[in-house]
Design a protein that fits this description.
The protein is α/β, with parallel strands linked by helices. Helices cover about 35% and strands about 15% of the residues.
Length: about 625
Amino acid sequence: MSIAESVLTETRQFISGNMAVAQAARDAQVKVAAAYPGTPSTEILEYIAEFPDIYSEWSINEKVSLEVTIGASMAGSRALCAMKHVGMNVASDAFMTQTLIGAVGGLVIVVADDVGLSSSQNEQDSRYWGRFAHLPVLEPSDAQEAYDYTRAAFSISEQYEVPVIVRLTTRICHVKGVVINSPAESHETSGFVKDPARLVMVPGNAKNRIPMMMARDIELKHFSEESYLNTLEQGEDKSVGFVTSGAAYYHVKEAFPNAPVLKLGFSHPAPIEKIRDFSQSVEKLVVIEEVEPLLETELRAANVEVYGKDIVPRIGELSPPVIQPVVNKLLDKTGQYDNIIPAQDIFPRPPTMCVACPHLGIYYCLSHIKNTIIAGDIGCYTLGAGHPWNALDTCISMGASLSVAQGIDKGRSEADKNKNVLAVIGDSTFLHMGMQGLLDITYNKGNVTILLLDNRAVGMTGGQNAPSSGINLQGEETTQVDFRKLCEALGVKPERIHEVNPYEMPTLFKALRSEVKIKEPSVIITNQPCVLTERYSKLPPLKVEDDKCTGCGNCLDVGCPAITVTRRETVVKPNGKEKELAFVQIDTAACTGCDLCTKPCAPDAIVPAYNSAQGNAQIIDAVEVK
């Protein structure tokens, strides 16, 4: 049974916050949903895509996804846009203007903050956008509230003609809970109504909308003070009270179960007077917010005495082992609430690429390209900065590798004048925001080599389809980008564009070594699919013949996690220097037979795991051969 079918036949389910948001969109009669994949928000649109009555799309980037949903709202339809926190940076241009236009059909923007940096290059607090853009912010604390608050957001959006932000965090997105669905509501699309004074944001029209925005702020403040989304829970111990929101609410309840708590579901505009009244009922008031002191600052400006980031960390999740000791110290009650067992340290497991990932051979080659500055980007290939490759020198934001490389080229010092400059970028990232960087390089006569890794998927977030795959969100065939033609259209000379199979490492290495020496823009496109998608086809696995393995360890430099060290030995070379040998084995259950590890193997110790005709036949029957 599909997700869509199960949802329609059940009202009580054990689901994640992301799935709860998707169900709320369906039950609120959303007509259009758009997003760009980004952990931890990715699954929201994947779930929505299973509802046939909602048009859903993977947009090319977050700005486009927001603009698509803005258009749907202007047409009178309810629309939802989902993104992770850094995606809002991309969407902010359209976002900041839409606050003046407002919403016609309900417009909800779900932003997922990666508190603790599980899979992000920074830790942002998206509550700032509510203050910056004069928009209301709702903060659910669990999956049930993710459903309820998303439903409520559409009503608030239409009542006050304003886009509404629903701020999630990684914990809310991915942790499951029991969710009870409310009956679906009816919503009729009103249709597009011409209103240039509102919808055409030239300066003359925009400035006339600002008084409307200010008046709306006042209405929303009154709404917040009385909103049922802000709830007060009385507690027996009045020595300390807490104001909190989101996942931090449950952390507070676990750490201090007897303390009064004011939980803010409608966190902006903040109910300042409600909080002021609450502060009078407790001896000390502590604000627990992830991650910035937004509410704390507002309360102090309103002359409400609070404790906050002066005692609580400003980074990461505020879990019970984090909250309890600092509040106990504040209360001078050490030991009274020490009921939290701290998490145990575990053996570190740094992230690595998948077995047979087409990027493995690429980074093996890059690690052997000398005298080159390598600008990296956001995606699976960012892992190339780690062991054993150590083959990335920068990583900033989506699509930045090309622009940064251009800056390195133009700003190079005398000491770097003879160094090569190379930018690495994936196919989806290139289409998301990298194309402009390539155009800038060609237009401004940069000297940069671009390594465009086309694995035909948004690999880092789970292998979602992209224009490079030729398949849309619904699995339908559609236009597939021709990167060679695209790069040529952006100004790269045809003779400087090369397509290479990344599993053919000698060919790839030769192309890299020659192109970085060319004093003009060039592009090398690798063209093998992500191993986790159905477009990848396995070959029979490989194994190591122990009697042939010399322990040279060259195969480990490829970085494939299917290769493990079985033993190490230290030997003394004729020159008296010690050398460590690493004898290896290959996990044949994981191996896909990509053949990358055989290229650097000097003794030819890596061979097919099944030598007999019968064994090969068994493997060939089990997998589709390239």
